[in-house]
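I am writing to request your help with a piece of structural work I have in hand. The matter concerns a single protein, recorded as an amino acid sequence and a row of backbone structure tokens. Could you please explain, in whatever detail you think fit, how the structure tokens follow from the sequence? Thank you for your consideration; the sequence and its tokens are set out here:
>
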Amino acid sequence: AYDFSFQKGDNLLQIDFEGNEIKEIKFDLKINGQRNFGIINYHNNEIYILLNTDKISFDNFKKVFPKPQKNKKLTKKINFNWEISEMTISEEYSLFSNKLNFIYDKGFESMMFYDSKKEFELSILPQLDGNKQIYLFSKNAGQFFYAQKISKNMNGGALIGKGSFRKFNDYDMNIKVKDFSIDKNSKFYNLLFTSRMLDIFSVLQNSQDEFNYLEVPVQKKGKVFSFDHAMMLGGTVAFSFKGEANPSEKTATVNGTYGPLYLFEKNFKNVPFLSELFGKNVEESLLAADFKVKKNGNKTDFIFNPLSILTPGKTRNFFDIWE
């Protein structure tokens, strides 16, 4: 029996003491109609926390997700485990039988999150050199970007990311996505569709919205994500871009270049005469155009520079109207 017990409706709180110190806390709460059961065990040098939740949205999960940093006043090690039966990402997508574990010992030590079907996995683990590595995997990249409020215009795709972790608001990671498509109702679909008019294979297959590969080196500082030398490939089209985004403020600025005949150039650039026409990458492509995307709140502006489309890449910098 517990030394102290309090119940009101479906909510229950029980506390067990050992001498003048708390030994265990047990609670059973209903929040928004969902059951949340938890036990906190206190030991000499360690605290064990077990939380079990029936269902929670990803937005609410982020609000209560613990982000411990260094705390000199906390001397006990914390082992936190949270099991979630269903986490809703969107109306169409959920993760089931999720498990979160993190360890705090005079500062954040490690974290792992995954679901039973391994649709999504995130881990932050210490390395032998004392640094921490962050690893990310998702079978549905579109839903991952949607949950993070980065983009709601990507469909599908397998995502993998790896990088260095310092704090939750200070890390860098290289993200790669394979085999995805862009929503045809997105605001920038017309830009993508137009850029692939010369991509005869995608036109014949009516697959101008499908892409093979995306790679984005990301660095997060505070609330701002910055990226440089990012690239996206689809059919015979390549995009190269850089910029920064602040999802919490709903702002973003992207400057980029795309080459409609990129893969054609890659295959024929070693042929005498043609090699002089083609540069080493999409920024130096013979057929390439500059574009700019600026988002502020719910307003998104797209600027396309038609003067650059037939300007050889080696001289196109002279016509850079964005700087």
User: Anything to note?
Assistant: The chain is about 10% helix and 55% strand. Residues 271-280, 310-323 have pLDDT under 50 and may be disordered.
